[in-house]
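Give me structure tokens for this 71-residue protein.
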Amino acid sequence: MLRALDAKGFAISTGSACSSKKASRPVLEAMGIGKDLRESAVRFSFGPSTTARAMDALFEEVKNICAQFST
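Here you go.
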């Protein structure tokens, strides 16, 4: 997911902005998220200039990528 969306120009990460250089996921851990889910989580970044159209494009691409891996 990370590589595919990044290649399409979407801002995505596997960790919080404040822990980008850490191997662990301290924010998700503090939220009580289990290890398996923490290790498969991604973070999308949005800002004031993010449009509804851009979000729709992101959601459509997420659906397309998920469809490639579902049975």
